[in-house]
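Dear H.,

Thanks for agreeing to be a second pair of eyes. The structure we're designing against is below in token form, covering all 339 positions.
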């Protein structure tokens, strides 16, 4: 009896000690996981998907090997357009390797682009069914990136990938969500200037965000490295037309001149450059970009450079073949205005 009592006391002491140190161990473990020094344990669903052998290998610290193997299987499903099976593989892969950006990005690309295009092209599918499948797989692709962002909150590249889907001109857009993702992304350390430009592009397609778009446009324009980007120049022209009095607007030849500074000797060439890019920009109206003053400016430049009506991009694209040969000839045209 005395031995049994002693064993019981020891057993109870161990339980008490275990309960006492549990909060400290849990906090330490959670801290390691937040710092990505320790991954989450494999859940039951993933264990079933892996099978006994793969699960044992994964427990042995070789998660990356199993993830790579299953990535090859996912590629085989891609080749056979087996999108459901492909998604299941990537669910397991991203559970095994949640901090590997590549897997989240590739899974999303397969579902939001490849599966989306596949169901758009498949014959003998009723239109309602086709639209449902495209919408469904687009949402699945978006969800992979959102889950990837949750697992990697300091990764701006996953946010950028999400934004490209949400703003794709050939897919249903969610511009407010894209703007929110970009506003988060630009706060991340070492995020590049391209994210600021993409924020401008998204805002420039939202009429109800004019003030924000103009603020971001000025911020982007203040960085000389952004001034060579045609889209930045074009959006800046349209937003300035919308928000600034005529007398205070920047000269076109300055906006479309070299980054190093405006040289009056090249005024004509710079205005011709403006006509070229504004023409292309006008033909992108379907994308919803701000177009204030663009038509009026093109008309002014067409008249200035004596461009024939049939070469005008304002004719609904009629007679326009990417870039009218007339504008090429203008570089050597003796009728160009003299300085």
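And this is the sequence the design step returned. I haven't edited it by hand at all.
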């Amino acid at each position: 009896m005395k031995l049994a009592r002693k064993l019981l006391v020891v057993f109870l002491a161990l339980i008490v000690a275990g309960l006492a140190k549990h909060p400290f161990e849990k906090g330490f473990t959670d801290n390691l996981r937040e710092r990505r020094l320790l991954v989450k344990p494999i859940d039951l669903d993933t264990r079933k998907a892996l099978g006994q052998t793969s699960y044992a290998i994964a427990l042995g610290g070789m998660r990356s090997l199993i993830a790579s193997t299953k990535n090859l299987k996912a590629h085989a499903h891609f080749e056979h357009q087996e999108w459901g099976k492909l998604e299941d593989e990537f669910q397991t892969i991203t559970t095994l390797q949640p901090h590997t950006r590549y897997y989240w990005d590739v899974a999303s690309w397969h579902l939001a682009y490849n599966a989306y295009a596949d169901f758009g092209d498949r014959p003998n599918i009723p239109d309602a069914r086709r639209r449902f499948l495209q919408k469904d797989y687009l949402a699945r692709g978006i969800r992979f990136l959102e889950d990837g962002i949750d697992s990697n909150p300091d990764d701006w590249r996953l946010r950028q990938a999400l934004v490209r889907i949400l703003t794709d001109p050939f897919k249903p857009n969610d511009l407010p969500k894209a703007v929110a993702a970009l506003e988060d992304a630009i706060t991340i350390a070492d995020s590049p200037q391209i994210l600021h430009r993409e924020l401008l592009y998204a805002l420039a397609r939202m009429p109800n965000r004019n003030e924000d778009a103009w603020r971001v446009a000025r911020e982007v324009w203040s960085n000389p490295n952004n001034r060579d980007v045609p889209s930045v120049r074009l959006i800046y022209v349209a937003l300035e037309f919308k928000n600034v009095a005529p007398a205070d607007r920047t000269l076109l030849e300055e906006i479309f001149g070299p980054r190093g500074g405006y040289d009056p000797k090249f005024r004509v060439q710079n205005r011709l450059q403006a006509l070229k890019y504004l023409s292309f920009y006008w033909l992108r109206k379907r994308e919803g970009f701000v177009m204030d003053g663009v038509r009026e400016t093109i008309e002014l430049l067409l008249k200035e450079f004596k461009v024939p009506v049939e070469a005008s991009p304002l004719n609904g694209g009629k007679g326009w073949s990417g870039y009218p040969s007339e504008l090429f000839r203008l570089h050597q045209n003796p009728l160009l205005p003299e300085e």
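Two observations from my side: Confidence is low (pLDDT under 50) at residues 28-33, 52-58, 320-325, 330-339. Residues 102 and 298 are 44 Å apart (CA to CA).

Warmly,
E.
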